[in-house]
Write a structure and sequence with these properties.
The chain is mainly beta. The chain is built from 1 helix and 5 strands. The chain folds into 2 domains: 33 residues, no CATH class; 56 residues. It has a 3-stranded antiparallel sheet with strand order 3-4-5, with no helix packed on it. Bound molecules: zinc ion (ZN).
């Protein structure tokens, strides 16, 4: 059974950021672009070395969200308070594992 675009599409609030796409003859999907995000909250995380600033700085846990409801939900990142780079406290090439904050 094949779903129609209306059955599996994004919510009405997302419709401006999404376009329907066809995948093969009987499959359809949605392609959604990201929306502008703003900083909602910033909480001190820890003081550590920033690999961009090249000295010890404050790092904060930053919560960002879209201005209006969107397919893309809120995101959390660790940012340097001086240069605002994400994961600036990690050695270059390393990724943060969120389970072990
Ligand atoms: Zn920095």
């Amino acid at each position: 059974m094949t779903e129609t675009l209306e059955e599996k599409g994004p919510s009405p609030t997302d419709i401006d950021n999404c376009v329907p796409i066809l995948i093969g003859e009987d499959q359809a999907g949605w392609l959604c672009r990201s929306a502008p995000m703003i900083e909602v909250d910033r909480t001190f995380h820890r003081q550590s070395w920033c690999f961009y600033c090249r000295h010890t700085t404050h790092h904060s846990m930053v919560l960002r969200n879209t201005i209006e409801p969107n397919y893309w939900g809120p995101s959390i990142s660790i940012r340097c308070d001086e240069c605002n780079n994400v994961d600036a406290d990690l050695f270059p090439g390393r990724a943060r594992e969120w389970d072990g904050l």
